[in-house]
Amino acid sequence: MQSTGQSQTSFRTSPLSGASRALWSSSGFLVNSVRRTQLLAGLKLGVLVAAMIGRVQAVSPVPTGLTELSTTDGRQMLRNSTPNDQFWLLAQEFTTQDSQDWCGLASASMVLNALPIPKPAINAFEGYPYFYQDNILKTSKPKVMTASEVAKSGLGLDDITDILNAHVGVEAEALHTDPGAVSLDQFRQSIADAMAASDTYLIANFDRYEFMGEGGGHHSPLGAYCAESDTVLILDVARYRFKPYWVPVEKMYNATASSNGLAQGGHRGLARVTAQQGSANLATPPHYESDTLRSESDDTASIQSDATSDNTPSSTAQRGSSNWAGAVAGILLAFCVGAIVGAVAYRGHEQHVSPLDTHSSELVEQHRLLNQQSSLSQNQNL
Fold this sequence. Notes:
alpha+beta, elongated, 382 residues, disordered N terminus, 53% helix, seven-stranded antiparallel β-sheet
């Protein structure tokens, strides 16, 4: 009987059995941690793939009915669009809008730099004169709008025209495309006349949804007019998404004839910008100096996050629905890809028995044998 008690006591306090239980519990925790890590890695990979796919979609070609300038047909249209002096001068100043809401300011800066007029000195460029998107509100005299006003109400066709007119040596006129007063032929002739004139440029304020099927109000300079194909070249300042493309004049007419949706009402249209006679010989205004610009209290940087180029209810709703749709699609894609990667990783783990799993199995078998021996010993003593 004493041997039985010793055997039972030995079994209950066996260091091997305690170690086996501890190792088995630890191995299970580690295995689960590995599986969680694999699943998390799969989800991260899914998010990365979704982001890459979203980026590919963002730089996709223009819709059917439009022609990219870089294509064979697009280059031929440019060759046929003579004269095309504006294209070459604007191409030298082609810029990308600093934010999604700065299309009007980017377009104005391109035209101002292309015109033979005095330009402000920029500290960042070692004093070389240049118009940039964040200084054209400050170089306007009289001041047309402040950054906070732009952020609150956006920029319409009249606003861009007023900002341009507030610069030395510039004459700008807003040509609103009112379908009741301006016909398609008149609209076409306005474009052809501007392109044939020297030092004259057009900035289009249009609803991109009319020929893209997405987006809203937008500003971009027109680079050329091809009479043979009856198309106009848009130097889209949203260069991160669209390269220069040709649009049929009729589609551009419809896109500029839409209501701007701003508080003052009215239609979109074209801003015709030209240099005043003798503007190249004008002296640089004192308020164009770097020190004056730097002392301005109006912080135009706030526009980059707050301003909207065209605060129409329709365009805002379209941008919002598009953003939500893209976000939902990205999340779903991320989880799908992550689940697939996680499942593959888990299956690979199941098919590959690690040394830890092998050792854990051996401990469990030893535990089972000890239980069996203990039972036999008890039966023999009884």
